[in-house]
Every structure is written in structure tokens, then in C-alpha cells.
Amino acid sequence: MLTDLRVKLRTRHSRIASCDVDEFLPLTKQCFSFFRANSVLKSVIDELLARNNKIANELQAATGNMRVYGDTAEEGATIAYLTWQSFADQDDIHYFYRTEFGGYGELDQSLGRYRDRYVEPLFDYLDETLDDGNVVLATLIRYKQKVEWYRRPDVLKLYEDDTSRGEKNVKQHMFEFLFDQGLAFHVEPVAASGEPDVVSLQDSQHRFIGEIKIFDSESRGKTYIKKAFYQAYRYCLDYNEPLAYLIVFNVSKRQLVVELPSDHDGVPRFEYNHKTIFLIVIDIHKREGTASTLGVAETVTISASELIHEVEEAAQAKN
Predict the structure, then answer these.
(1) How many CB atoms lie within 10 A of CB 246?
(2) Alpha helix (H) ranges present in 133-258?
(3) Strands 243-250 and 209-215
(4) Dihedral of CA 162/163/167/171: which sign?
């Protein structure tokens, strides 16, 4: 799958790298449409931006002819994506020429310099990331879809056969899937504030910090999930990582709604103190009837302000 995606990515790169000024904007729009429509690329970019929000904020605050330079390839790719995206989201074919070069110099030469600054670093980053198989968020989304579409009864049975160990059993099912997808990780390593359920190996470029929970709307309900967000946040601090993943298996007929921002069709994320927690909710409760006969499901709602309060209250208690 990733090999085919790299071929498609390189094809688009070839087109954008050799086009003239008049073709650059329409081909740019096609590239960004491709980035947003492909779940793997979208996840890779979401993780890139979440890990580098500091440099993104610096770029947003820059004024006039001030340029922001990254210290790493990742920061350079973040600047490249956000700058090139601003060009893609408008309709003036000479926008890059006016904003980046002040309208001075030859158009063709300016386009070449613009591609060197922004197009090449982004394509290099995406190609290298796919080559390394470092696609955690996309893999978790794929697991969610596989379980909800094809393995819902099987995973629910793992929980219901022994509810005292149900959370551990569904974790094991997810770990097996991640292992089959080539992700190397430790299970339940010891951290300063407890034990995250999974963290990637030390030689990984970025640690994959995952916390897995059951939501049953009762004993493991709203309070339990709020505490899980704090746990994931604390593990980010312990491992000095900018992001973590909270995976929630919903065994309740009630729908878990966490009011967090996300891109269109994206994954909800909790952002606090330069840390990002991606939330993946996997519904494994038993289906009864069809969508037309079930009516509106009861919901359990958690707001972003409640999560911030939970984190701040727990942090104060710890101190």
C-alpha cells in the first residue's frame, strides 16, 4: 500500500517540479486535494503539524519580509506545507511571486526558488516518512475501520468473555494488529507518572505513546475518559514528546462525544501546553436494528474546557 502511494506521490512531484508559471497554481491545488483526500498522507501531515506547532506559530507571527527557518528537516517541512498551502488556498497565479519575492526578478527564476524553498522539502519529507513506514495515526485509523466494519463482534467478545480483563484483552488485539503493520513498540513500559500502554522503541525517530481505555458509560464513563486524557498528557511530559494517542473502545450503546477541534473528516485532538492528544474512538458495542429504526443515540459529552480543567486540577494535585 505504501509503495503504491509513494509512486503516486512521485508522479505528482514530477508534474509540479517541471511545470511553468501558469500551470503551477492549478497543479498545486491538485496536489493539496490529493494530500487531503488520502487518509495516510493526511494523517502524516496532521502528525507533522502537531509535532511542530511552535515553528508553525512563529511562521504565523512573522510579518513583512521576515522569513522563518527551521532547524530540522521536520520544521522545514512544516514551514513548506503551511506556506505552500496558503498559495493553494487562493486564486492568483502570481501570489507566490508577490508575497515571497515582492514582485521583483524573473517569474521563472522566482518559481524555481519557490519550489526549492517549499515544494522540495515537503515532498522529501513525505517520501522519507512513507519509506520509513512511520505512519502511526494512519495505522490507528485503519485499525478502527477494520474493527468497526469487519471485527466488531470478535473484539466485543474479547471484552465480554472476561470483563475484569476486558480492557487488557482488547489492548492485546490492537497490539497484534500494530505489530503486523510493522510498528515496533514496547508494551506497558514504566514512565515517571505511571505506565503508558504502548510506546515505540528507543531507536524510533519519534516515540509512539499510546493509552488504551474502555468506555462503558458507567464504571468506566466520563470521569474515566477525562483522567485518560490527563494520563496521556503526562506521558508526553515524561517522554518529552509533543503528541500521544488515546484509543477508546466504546462498549456502551451510548455515543461518546468529545468536543474537540479537528479538520474536516479528521481526527479530534486535544491541544494543551504545546502537547497534542489524538483521540480515536472505536465503537464495538452490539448493533441492534438498522440506522433507520434505532433513532438518535444517547450521548455522553465531554467538552474541551472540562479536559483543560482535569489537566490543570491533576497537575496542581501532583505539585
Answers:
(1) 25
(2) 136-146, 152-160, 166-180, 222-239
(3) parallel
(4) positive
Instruction: Calculate helix-pair angle for 120-132, 73-88, nearest 10 degrees.
Output: 120
- State the virtual CA torsion across 225, 226, 227, 233 in degrees, nearest 10: 110
Long-range contacts, stretch 83-90, CB < 8 angstroms, 24+ apart? 83/59, 83/117, 83/118, 84/28, 84/32, 84/118, 84/119, 84/122, 85/32, 87/25, 87/28, 88/25, 88/28, 88/29, 88/31, 88/32, 89/32
Using the structure block, give the residue that is written with the C-alpha cell 463482534. Answer: 153
138 and 44 Cβ atoms separated by less than 8 Å: yes
The model carries a pTM of 0.84
Polymer length of the chain: 319
Instruction: Indicate the domain borders of the chain.
Output: 2-132, 136-318
Rounded CA gap, 22 and 94, in Å?
A: 9
Cell of 192: 515517571
127 in helix, strand or coil? helix
Instruction: Dump pLDDT digits (tens) for 172-205.
Output: 999 899 888 877 666 665 555 666 676 665 455 6
Residue type (1 letter), 126 = L
Amino acid at 7: V
Q: Which amino acid is at 21?
A: V
> What distance in Å separates the CA atoms of residue 229 and residue 168, rounded to the nearest whole number?
18
Say how far apart CA 234 and CA 232 lie, in whole Å. 5
- Cβ-contact 244, 211 below 8 angstroms: yes
Phi and psi based region of residue 139 (left: phi greater than 0; alpha: psi -120 to 50; beta: remaining): alpha
The CATH architecture assigned to 136-318 reads: 3-Layer(aba) Sandwich (3.40)
264-280 pLDDT, tens digit per residue, is 567 899 999 989 999 99
